[in-house]
Amino acid sequence: MTKQLIIVPCHSIWRQSSDTDEENLGQKRSHWHLAEFQHEGNDHFAFIKHALTAIETLLASLDISIVVFSGGKTKEAAGEVSEASSYFYLTQKLLQRVQCGKSIRWAFPDTAEIPELCQKIVERLHEIPGLSVDTLFADYVLLEEFALDSFDNLLYSIGRFKETVETYPSKIIIVGFGFKRRRFIEYHASAIDFPINQVNYIAVEPTPSYNDPELLKNYFETLQKLENRNALALFEKDWYATREPLLSKKSARNPFKECHQYPLPLLHLENRGFQIANDEEYYNTTVKGKMPWSDIKKEC
Fold it and tell me: What pLDDT, in 10s, does the model give residues 214-239?
């Protein structure tokens, strides 16, 4: 019985085409629509590792799990391509290459973890009769293509799970940046009354090119400060991202005016543009103890 949801919150869009004769396996910054702040930490490598780690986690619990890549069509320059679909096709492409016996190490000379993860996944697939990269992705990996922020990543992935499996998940695993762990568990999961003891977070961090301990320390300290200022402080005041400035941030990430239609029980989702005036009151009157997943801790 499928009951475990593995979420990959997506952060960018893979370009697919290449700007050189070298094959595009996502190994260059230019292969992605990256924001400036995503360069220093070589975030594009972390994106690939998030996706592969999720697939590895899936294979360890294939009988109960599905993976959802979550991320909308957030970049006008990329056209109507979602973050989720770009992660899906790049991850599939990497694993197909390895499954066919082709090396991808040439593309990741300083990031050996990526080809090693691919090799481990393919070796595990060979142990499961009838399972290939293509069948794995067709049967166990879903796209959630409407999320515009981290709250959406969690909530809409639950909706995508329900849409496919016809029940809500009783366990959730999130694979993402470690500095976002608190945001997902203490803020987002709590805001929708999903029992946090049923949420696990697998952290895969960015990897700057320098090795100096002091520089690395400063880098990660700065990351945490930015997380506190630009995310935690905002979600602390606006749990459901229905007011400013979070509302404008989401709007800026939705150039194609997309709108989800997932089967989710939160009242504010029924009316597009609805603003929650008092989050705590909304939570206590319409969310707490009233969600289909509120009491799953009693079942597990």
Answer: 999 999 999 999 999 999 999 999 99
pLDDT at 104: 98
Residue 32: alpha-carbon gap to chain centroid: 16
> How far lies 175's CA from each of 60, 91, 179, 197, in Å?
14, 14, 12, 16
Q: What is the pLDDT of residue 297?
A: 60
How far, CA to CA in Å, does 37 sit from each of 11, 199, 226, 258?
Answer: 12, 28, 11, 26
Domain boundaries, the chain: 4-298
Residue given tokens 């890549």 in the structure block: 69
Angle, vertex CA 223, rays to CA 217 and CA 227, nearest 5? 145
DSSP string, the chain: ---EEEEEE----B--S-SSSS--SS-SGGGB---GGGTTTTHHHHHHHHHHHHHHHHHTTTTTEEEEEE-----GGG-S--HHHHHHHHHHHHHHHHHTT---GGG-TT-THHHHHHHHHHHHHHTSTT--HHHHHHHHEEEE----SHHHHHHHHHHHHHHHHSS--SEEEEEE-GGGHHIIIIIIIHHTT--GGGEEEEE-----S---HHHHHHHHHHHHHHHIIIIIHHHHH-TTS-STTHHHHHHHT-TT----------GGGGSTT---S-HHHHIIIIITTTSTTTTGGGT-
Residues (pLDDT < 70) of the chain are 297-300
- State the greatest distance between any 2 C-alpha atoms of the chain, in Å, as a whole number: 59
Q: Which residue's entry shows tokens 């972390």?
A: 46
